[in-house]
Amino acid sequence: MPRNIAVDRSEPIRARYLARLFWRVAGFVALGLGALGAILPLLPTTPFVILAAFCFARGAPALHARLLKSRLFGPALRDWQASGAIAPRYKVLAIAMMLAAFVAAVAASAPPVALIVQVICMALAALFILSRPNGDD
């Protein structure tokens, strides 16, 4: 290779920067949706916080560590990271919230097709949740 050809070494740095930026933005969006889920009954919190931890692990290790040390989310995230486990109380809470959302949809006179889709989605989600090992409570 001739020595007078300039090599652009900035491209890998730019790509890494953009990737980290993407993961950070995705982490903050997921965390924001998780925070909304703590307030809104139909929006889940835990999956978005798990997604935020996943994103922050790739784009913002300090924020990932902070989430893992969090008094509120840390134990559930550590259980999930270690073994894909969900504590029994969170399983009960998740299933109860699904039932409450279904009752709200029935009370709001949702169309039958929407109720059927909701039942199928919630049943699959409940099966997944119940299939996970029990974490620390």
TrEMBL record:
It comes from the Bacteria. Keywords: Membrane, Transmembrane, Transmembrane helix. The chain crosses the membrane at residues 21-42, 48-68, 89-107, 113-131. One of its GO terms (cellular component) is plasma membrane. This is DUF454 domain-containing protein. It comes from Roseovarius spongiae. The lineage of its organism: Bacteria, Pseudomonadati, Pseudomonadota, Alphaproteobacteria, Rhodobacterales.
